[in-house]
């Protein structure tokens, strides 16, 4: 059964490729020509490389030919221009799903984000799949619109598409922004914006891959949305203390006022609205005063999802993968 993976050279994509190869799956990876180093690694793994782009409709028609399963992981996460989020995460998704209509595909897993929903209404109410969507930045808005596109293809054409909303995904090979987060804790240079008690769901990469494969295997997921995350919802202070403990450093909380986070968020939104600029490092600071915690009950009940890696184990594995960077 041939499987197409978009975004295979990204953090999540690389782990998914490894997991599916471990199951002897036949994999085709849609890649852009500029990812040369990553493409060479994929070739050595024996996957089929297909050059194309989500904005190139003709390339997508060829990419999905004879494919039975599609993992649509590609998307803009750290774009500098807000408009690029919508080009890739909305128009690109629509282009791919249109191409899939001509093939006998049994499952399409569309990777969305907790950002499509926006922050929790309050600290005592976790986000669920039924929560109203109120994304607060362009990235989240584009992911929400991507979900709506996916739902429309299911409703209009019966296309077997499922949207999965992970929160922040971390683990070995994680994005540079997360690496810097771990390094600053190690260097004792991390400042907590606010009191550090805001909620944050996380998802260790192995938990996410496990959840994605469960979505594929289930025959009752078409047209649905699932939150996939770690078992517990943490506070920032819990996350920081756990990282510091695994890094072997003493964590002394250094707080700055919540107003700094509010001001940073305001500045971020002004840059988005007035100048089409998206500075995600700025957003990361501002969201420390917001709650982003999700309930995974639906995935547990309907998929049998049972995440095995908790925060301490996930952080331990991540810190081990960062030892060279931490020693510099």
What would you say this structure looks like, in words?
The chain has a domain at 2-170 and 203-231 and 294-307: NAD(P)-binding Rossmann-like Domain (Rossmann fold). The chain is globular and about 55 Å long. Helices cover 46% and strands 14% of the residues. It contains 13 helices and 13 strands. The termini are far apart. Helix 3 (57-63) packs across helix 4. Strand 1, helix 1 and strand 2 (26-31) form a beta-alpha-beta unit. It has a seven-stranded parallel sheet with strand order 3-2-1-4-5-6-11, sandwiched between helices. The chain has helices at residues 11-21, 36-44, 57-63, 82-100, 138-157, 176-186, 205-217, 236-247, 258-275, 280-286, 297-303, 311-321, 323-327, and strands at 2-6, 26-31, 48-51, 69-72, 107-111, 161-165, 168-170, 192-193, 199-200, 202-204, 225-227, 234-235, 255-256. By secondary structure, the protein is α/β, with parallel strands linked by helices. The longest helix has 20 residues, at 138-157.
């Amino acid at each position: 059964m041939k499987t197409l993976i978009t975004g295979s050279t990204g953090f999540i994509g690389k782990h998914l490729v490894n997991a599916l190869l471990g199951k002897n799956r036949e994999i085709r990876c849609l890649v852009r020509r500029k990812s040369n180093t990553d493409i060479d690694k994929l070739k050595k793994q024996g996957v089929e490389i297909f050059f194309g782009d989500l904005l190139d409709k003709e390339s997508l028609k060829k990419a999905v030919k004879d494919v039975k399963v599609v993992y649509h992981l590609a998307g803009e996460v750290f774009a500098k221009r807000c408009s690029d989020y919508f080009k890739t995460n909305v128009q690109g998704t629509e282009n791919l799903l249109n191409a899939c209509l001509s093939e006998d595909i049994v499952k399409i897993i569309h990777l969305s984000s907790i950002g499509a929903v926006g922050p929790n209404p309050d600290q005592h109410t976790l986000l669920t799949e039924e929560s109203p969507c109120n994304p607060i930045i362009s990235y989240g808005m584009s992911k929400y619109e991507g979900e709506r596109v996916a739902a429309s293809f299911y409703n209009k054409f019966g296309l077997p598409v499922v949207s999965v909303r992970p929160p922040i995904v971390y683990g070995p090979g994680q994005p540079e922004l997360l690496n810097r987060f771990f390094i600053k804790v190690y260097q004792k240079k991390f400042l907590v914006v606010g009191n550090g008690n805001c909620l944050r769901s996380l998802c260790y990469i192995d938990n996410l891959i496990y959840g994605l494969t469960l979505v594929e295997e289930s025959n009752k997921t078409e047209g649905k949305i699932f939150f996939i995350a770690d078992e517990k919802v943490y506070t920032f202070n819990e996350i920081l203390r756990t990282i510091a403990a695994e890094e072997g450093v003493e964590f002394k909380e250094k707080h700055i006022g919540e107003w700094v986070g509010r001001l940073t968020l305001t500045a971020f939104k002004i840059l988005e609205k007035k100048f089409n600029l998206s500075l995600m490092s700025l957003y990361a600071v501002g969201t420390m005063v917001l709650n982003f915690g999700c309930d995974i009950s639906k995935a547990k009940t309907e998929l049998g999802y049972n995440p095995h890696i908790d925060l301490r184990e996930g952080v331990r594995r991540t810190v081990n993968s960062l030892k060279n960077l931490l020693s510099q």
